[in-house]
Amino acid sequence: MFQVEPVLWLQSFASPVAIWLMGAVTWLGTVKCLSVAVLFLTFAVRFRVGLAVVILLSVNSLATDLTKDAFAIPRPGDVDTRVRQLGGDASHPIAERGGAPAFWSLLPSGTLAVARSTSGLSWAFPSGHLTSAATLTLSIALLLGFRRLWLLPALWIPLTGLSRLFLGRHYIADLLGGALLGALVALGGGLLFGAAAMGLERGDAARWRRAALLSLASMALVLAVLVPGLDVAMVGRLVVASMLFYLAPGLAFQEEVDPLARLARLAIAAVLASVAYALLGPLFEAAGIAGTPRGAMFFGALTTLVIFGGGAAASRFVPFTGRGRLPRPTVGEA
Questions:
Q1: Which of 65, 99, 203, 263 stands 20 to 30 A from 314 (CA)?
Q2: Distance from first CA to last CA of the chain, Å, rounded?
Q3: Which residues lie below 8 Å from residue 76, measured CB to CB, with a gap of 6+?
Q4: What are the residue ranges spanned by the domains of the chain?
Q5: What kind and span of H or E run contains 43?
Q6: pLDDT of residue 334
Q7: Cβ–Cβ < 8 Å for 142, 196
Q8: How would residue 290 be classed by pLDDT, with cut points 50, 70 and 90?
């Protein structure tokens, strides 16, 4: 599953239209597009489901980074000069024909040794686009609980995998590993947050759910200290999103509103996001912490607090947003 032959076969059908289409599918899996999807889910669909997905995507990102570093598998374009880079970063060839010799074989030990001693390479296994696609779409289907939503992961996960293979960025093993990791994160989210993502108020399950959520945030902080190069901005997002979810009974707003009110809430969140990114960058530069791990963590934490916490608060008080708090659920298993 670490052969380059499937990639070469797909690339034999390359054309300007195919390259554009596969590039568009990959682009929809970037951080910016995922952020837009999460904002829409949070402020135009259901606040607590969106906040739960923020937490799960953060967990997924950290798990993906740790897994990539643990396996350290070079990308197809780095091990075989026949593989074209049709999208993404340029390749850094370390071998001319260094792929796996058979479908069930691993990459040759010589190829791995050279790759792991070469600086500047990005690792292939698992596919970050696949882990994000699986986490996002499966979490939405599980937490919202609508049957038709299962079409989303059924279509989007294979399309994302096809695009990453076609563009020369991954092996088949990367796609399978990414889909599995994303599915595990989504399933864990289904257990933690429940079908309606309303599980931390009261009731029999509240205690262990709170403990699990706090454990995730604490573990992320420990990893930020112990693991060099970890995406500490994502750690900041995870910690603040977990705090907001814990406090969400007081933040959540009335969701049974008309479409215009939903769009108004989404617009407020978008404005807050623009303002946060525009102001915090210069402030961090002035404070001398821009580009540092501490600065990155605080930036991720503060932007999450402003966008999601501020957006929720504003949506309860600003006109035209269907103001009003979300009623608490009845006591019992949430």
A1: 203
A2: 42
A3: 4, 7, 83, 99, 124, 168, 169, 170, 171
A4: 1-196, 198-334
A5: none
A6: 34
A7: no
A8: confident
Cα torsion 269, 270, 274, 279 to 10°: value is: -10
Instruction: Name residue 74's beta-bridge partners.
Output: 123
Strands (E), 164-251: none
Rounded to two decimals, what is the model's pTM?
0.91
Contact call for residues 160 and 130 (beta carbons, < 8 A): yes
Report the alpha-carbon distance of residue 230 to residue 119 in Å, rounded: 17
What type of residue sits at position 296? Answer: A
Measured between alpha carbons, how far is 94 from 119 in angstroms, rounded to an integer?
11
Q: Tell me which amino acid residue 308 is.
A: F
Residue 152 to residue 154: CA distance in whole angstroms: 5
Rounded mean pLDDT, 234-242? 94
Residue 95 tokens, joined: 């071998």
How many CB atoms neighbour CB 66 within 10 A? 13
Q: Is the pLDDT of residue 234 over 70?
A: yes
Q: Is 72 helix (H, G, I), strand (E, B) or coil?
A: coil
Mean pLDDT, rounded, of the chain: 87
